[in-house]
Amino acid sequence: MSAHSIERGKITVKEADLHRLLDLYGVTDQGQRNALLEFARRLNNPQWWDKYRDVVDGWLRSYLILESIAERIRTYEVRFIPGLLQTPAYAEAVIRRHHYNDADVHRRVEVRMQRQRTVLGGRPPAYGQSWTTRR
After folding, report:
1. What is d(CA 60, CA 49) in angstroms, rounded to the nearest whole number?
2. Are 52 and 107 in contact (CB under 8 A)?
3. I want to staple 91 with a disulfide (CB 3.0 to 4.6 A). Which of 16, 43, 54, 86 is the partner?
4. Rounded to whole angstroms, how far apart are CA atoms 88 and 108?
5. In this predicted model, what pLDDT tens digit does every residue of 29-53 receive, in sequence order?
């Protein structure tokens, strides 16, 4: 096992290796251990975004796992409508700001729309923007 390869997302972590890493890092709380083990299982199992690996970075895959099990999602956006609430046309316009290849843009829009269907379909988490007002 190479911890460095695991940390960089180059290889998946096996459950036995994760137990050893949790022991090494001193994680003794059973709730935390169970949550991390479940997270690793989900990362290692096939997911809807696997077919988009060419446009979904490793950090986003981790985020999508967390988002898929979230009970509440809060977001703060200064410049754009949050991705979970974007229309296909709006998502395309936002994505085109940084990606110029039509095929790449199309696949990224597909990911965003599938993410909406997955997170907001079925039993969606509570969703809202956080802000504070002063009186």
Report:
1. 10
2. yes
3. 86
4. 10
5. 999 999 888 888 887 888 898 899 8
